[in-house]
């Protein structure tokens, strides 16, 4: 059976060779005929029409050739572009040569060339391949190759099952069969014309035969080692490696598919051959050599698929080894990762630049960002970065269970960063180096050492009473390499600044990306290290390093900004990112070197310094640093409203740490906004004005809360008195912002005053009328009948809203003014109503006390009187909204009299209720009639029919 298969395979190969030789002979004759026709046309001085069989030529240009010119072999096969270049060169000599006769002759030749030259709009589309071609020229080849490979495998299988010959003889015959297949493949390749290779490049018969022979040799070697034990582990490993490397080498002749087969064989070799004493150095050494061989072949042929698969294989081996080995070592993996970094930087893509990208048909140019994120050999660079990034994260996760894993993680991150800095195509290594650095640092610091292999709660300290451990992980600080993290931050910053310097002239988008990564990654590492491993009260190591970082990045921003106009020609991103990075490091230094109130004030002062620095440098980023400082201060206030801690907060009203912690940032924001009054950018000035107003409100509100709660800010029992003070403060802030807008128009003050007023109205509806209403809560009003809680909670806010509405007339939109006026009327109405209830029930007006008949009658009288009073006030100040409010109150009184008083009152009170209602309604009617009759027939404006 073995001999039959061998003979059949050889016969098929010879048949294929003869068939290909006949086809090659026919194609050669056709090429020679076409060549003769071309030479005849050149000799006759005629232009050559575009060849109909050309597939890839984007343009076809021909020019006349002098008869005395003897075309060389190189000229016969020169491209159409060369002809066009020669024609243009002739025109140039005519223009710049100074000879009129020559110029005239060149012009005549140019006109003739324009008549004869044909430039098609697009390259002719390749004809669709026929079904016969697919079956006969492609599928048959692949199926035949698979059949040959299966024949070799079945031959090995037959050597196991049959006993006619010894296993050694049968394996030798199978190996000879594989060698014969590879030899036949090489023989066919040498006798096949290149035109066949171009037409059927994905179904090359030589490559299929070579692949079948390679698979056969691989199977024979493995069976000889695993089943019969003819080969020991070292010999089997060496033979399998030789087959794999030979396959990769032959792929240079037979194509990328064969290279993929050789790569697969090399990646499977360590898994197929096992020893009692495995060596990770041997494993990753062999994988590195196989990877380098694959990349060398890919560099020569310009492949992308096979090297991408090689990257994936290396990453998979590294992850499996680190995850599964009992006593894993980091250094062998680190060696392999460094080989990957050097291979990508020196071999493939190596020194490839964007200009090496093949031109895309129909695309005139590529945008800078598209060029940056789609570099040459993008599949290789992206998979290479991922192949180094994932093992680096695995190394970070195995600290400290794997020796030197922390150093391996840092070195791989820096290798990725250096690769991204030195090569213009390495945008993905640069970005992934930043992601891996930050995620790996958080992984090392945030997870406990033994928690990676055991229960988190075993490492947690007991609770305060000593009963149970805390249910969250606690890092083992002694196992985390704090100094290594700081060194990593320093090294990454140096690489990042060098990358900005290198890329600034050649690729502005790449330089912008590096200018962001250079400060962001070291800041993240330093911040994670400080907040997890440092002394939050005072840490000179982290603090001083942060100061150095801040000064270095500010100096870098100054250095890179020199030579540019201070007004800024467009957006210069490195100036923004480096200056912001330096400012962020200085803020971090304040957190490390100071504490409490000093830190808060220092951040605000640092932002103000950045604003006043605009007098020296007109950098657009500087004012925005004050906004960033305000955001950090607001974050600190949200984290700790007392600024200095509840235990350290003074109980003295007003003059305490809150006044400085809230008030000084508000003052600095106001001064910064004033300093920027002539700054060309209005948005930042408006933003600082808004932030100053917000901090001023916060200052007033926090001081009121502190004073009304006996110096304690965490009181959980809100009161109407405290809320009333807040309401009065917000109303006053709205009036102040309106005044500032009238003096110095600003959209922040204009819209901010209305937003503040609207929010205060919502607060009144939710708190004064519902949440903190003493009728619902039962809160005591106080012993004094008039100077009580109702005065502060309802009457004063109502008067304040009325004054704000009057001040906003003709200055703000009418709906906003009406809303303020109605809010004031509603508060006054509530004050009157609740004051009546106080008169009958005392300082406790809770709802559970019910209603008295005289009390019910008093409501009707008071509401009617209030309606009349509002009517008079509305007429006096010419406010239609107040007059409409008075009408609403009278309507409420009417409804109450007819629905409530009629059923609840008895005797004289019921009669007096209706008599009083009728008298008031008649009086109101007479009032309106008198006003209308007094104004009718005159040239004056009818005030009752216009809005105020």
UniProtKB/TrEMBL annotation:
Q: Does the keyword Repeat apply?
A: no
**Transmembrane segments annotated in the record for this chain:** 139-156, 168-188, 208-228, 235-259, 279-298, 305-324, 330-351, 372-396, 408-428, 435-454, 474-500, 512-531, 543-560, 572-590, 596-614, 621-639, 654-674, 686-704, 724-742, 754-772, 784-807, 814-836, 856-875, 882-902, 908-928
Q: Which UniProt keywords apply?
A: Membrane, Transmembrane, Transmembrane helix
Q: Is Ligase among this UniProt entry's keywords?
A: no
Pfam families (UniProt xref)? DUF2339
Q: Which domain of life is it from?
A: Bacteria
Which InterPro entries does the record associate with it?
DUF2339_TM, UCP035905_mem
Q: Where is this region: Disordered?
A: 45-80
**Segments of skewed composition (Acidic residues):** 67-76
Q: Which PANTHER family match?
A: BLL2549 PROTEIN (PTHR38434:SF1)
What is the protein name stated in its UniProt record?
Answer: DUF2339 domain-containing protein
Q: Which organism is it from?
A: Shinella zoogloeoides
């Amino acid at each position: 059976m073995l001999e039959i298969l061998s003979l059949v395979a050889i016969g098929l190969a010879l048949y294929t060779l003869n068939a290909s030789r006949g086809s090659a002979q026919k194609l050669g004759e056709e090429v020679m005929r076409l060549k003769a026709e071309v030479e005849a046309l050149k000799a006759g001085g005629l232009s050559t029409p575009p060849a109909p069989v050309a597939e890839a030529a984007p343009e076809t240009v021909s020019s006349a050739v002098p008869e005395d010119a003897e075309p060389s072999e190189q000229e016969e096969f020169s491209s159409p572009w060369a002809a066009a270049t020669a024609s243009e060169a002739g025109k140039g000599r005519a223009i710049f040569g100074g000879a009129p006769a020559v110029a005239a002759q060149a012009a005549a030749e140019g006109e003739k060339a324009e008549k004869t030259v044909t430039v098609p709009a697009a390259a002719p589309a390749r004809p669709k391949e026929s079904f016969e071609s697919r079956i006969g020229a492609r599928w048959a080849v692949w199926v035949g190759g698979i059949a040959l490979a299966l024949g070799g495998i079945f031959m090995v299988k037959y050597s196991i099952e049959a006993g006619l010959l010894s296993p050694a003889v049968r394996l030798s015959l199978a190996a000879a069969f594989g060698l014969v297949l590879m030899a036949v493949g090489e023989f066919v390749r040498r006798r096949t014309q290149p035109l066949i290779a171009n037409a059927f490049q994905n179904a090359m018969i030589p490559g299929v035969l070579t692949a079948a022979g390679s698979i056969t040799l691989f199977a024979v070697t493995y069976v000889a080692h695993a089943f019969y034990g003819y080969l020991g582990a070292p010999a089997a490993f060496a033979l399998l490696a030789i087959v794999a490397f030979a396959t990769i080498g032959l792929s240079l002749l037979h194509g990328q598919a064969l290279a993929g087969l050789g790569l697969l064989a090399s990646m499977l070799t360590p898994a197929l051959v096992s020893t009692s004493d495995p060596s990770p150095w041997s494993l990753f050494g062999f994988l590195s050599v196989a990877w380098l061989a694959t990349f060398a072949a890919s560099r020569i042929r310009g492949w992308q698929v096979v090297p991408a698969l090689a990257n994936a294989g290396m990453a998979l081996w590294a992850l499996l080894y680190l995850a599964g080995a009992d006593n894993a070592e980091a250094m062998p993996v680190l060696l392999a990762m460094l080989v990957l970094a050097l291979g990508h930087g020196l071999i493939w893509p190596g020194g490839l630049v964007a200009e090496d990208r093949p031109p895309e048909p129909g695309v005139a140019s590529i945008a800078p960002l598209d060029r940056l994120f789609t570099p040459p050999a993008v599949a290789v660079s992206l998979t290479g970065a991922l192949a180094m990034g994932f093992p680096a994260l695995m190394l970070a996760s195995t600290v400290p269970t794997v020796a030197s894993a922390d150093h391996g993680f840092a070195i791989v991150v820096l290798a990725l960063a250096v690769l991204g800095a030195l090569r213009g195509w390495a945008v993905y290594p640069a970005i992934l180096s930043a992601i891996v650095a930050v995620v790996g640092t958080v992984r090392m610091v945030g997870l406990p050492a033994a928690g990676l292999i055991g229960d988190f709660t075993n490492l947690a300290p007991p609770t305060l009473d000593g009963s149970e451990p805390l249910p969250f992980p606690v890092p083992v600080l002694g196992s985390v390499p704090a100094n290594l993290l700081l060194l990593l931050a320093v090294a990454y910053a140096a690489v990042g600044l060098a990358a900005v310097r290198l890329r600034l002239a050649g690729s502005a988008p790449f330089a912008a990306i590096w200018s962001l990564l250079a400060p962001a990654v070291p800041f993240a590492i330093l911040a994670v290290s400080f907040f997890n491993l440092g002394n939050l009260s005072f840490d000179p190591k982290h603090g001083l390093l942060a100061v150095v970082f801040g000064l270095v990045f500010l100096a870098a921003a100054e250095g890179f900004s020199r030579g540019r106009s201070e007004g800024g020609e467009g957006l210069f991103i490195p100036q923004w990112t480096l200056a912001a990075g330096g400012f962020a490091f200085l803020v971090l230094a304040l957190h490390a070197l100071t504490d409490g109130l000093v830190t808060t004030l220092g951040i605000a002062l640092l932002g103000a310094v950045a604003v006043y620095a605009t007098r020296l440098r007109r950098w657009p980023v500087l004012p925005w640093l004050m906004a960033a400082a305000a955001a950090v201060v607001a974050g600190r206030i949200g984290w700790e409203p007392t600024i200095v801690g509840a235990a350290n907060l003074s109980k003295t009203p007003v003059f305490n740490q809150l006044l400085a912690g809230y008030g000084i940032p508000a003052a600095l924001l106001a001064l910064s906004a004033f300093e920027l009054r002539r700054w060309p950018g209005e948005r930042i000035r408006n933003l600082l004005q808004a932030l100053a107003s917000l901090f001023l409100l916060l200052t007033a509100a926090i001081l009121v809360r502190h004073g009304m709660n006996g110096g304690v800010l965490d009181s959980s029992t809100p009161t109407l008195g405290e809320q009333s003070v807040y309401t009065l403060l917000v109303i006053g802030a709205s009036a102040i912002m309106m005044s500032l807008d009238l003096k110095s128009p600003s959209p922040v003050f204009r819209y901010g005053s209305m937003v503040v007023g609207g929010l205060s109205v919502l607060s009144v509806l939710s708190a004064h009328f519902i949440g903190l209403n003493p009728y619902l809560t039962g809160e005591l009003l106080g012993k004094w009948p008039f100077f009580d809680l109702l005065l502060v909670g309802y009457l004063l806010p109502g008067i304040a809203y009325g004054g704000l509405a009057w001040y906003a007339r003709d200055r703000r939109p009418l709906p906003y003014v009406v809303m303020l006026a109605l809010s004031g009327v509603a508060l006054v109405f509530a004050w009157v109503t609740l004051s009546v209830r106080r008169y009958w029930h005392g300082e406790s007006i809770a709802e559970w006390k019910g209603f008295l008949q005289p009390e019910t009658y008093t409501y009707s009288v008071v509401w009617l009187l209030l309606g009349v009073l509002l009517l008079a006030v509305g007429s006096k100040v010419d406010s239609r909204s107040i007059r409409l409010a008075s009408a609403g109150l009278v309507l409420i009184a009417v409804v109450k009299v007819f629905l409530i008083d009629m059923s609840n009152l008895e005797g004289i009170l019921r009669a007096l209720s209706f008599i009083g209602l009728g008298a008031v309604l008649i009086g109101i009617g007479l009032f309106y009639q008198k006003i209308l009759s007094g104004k009718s027939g005159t040239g004056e404006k009818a005030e009752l029919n216009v809005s105020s």
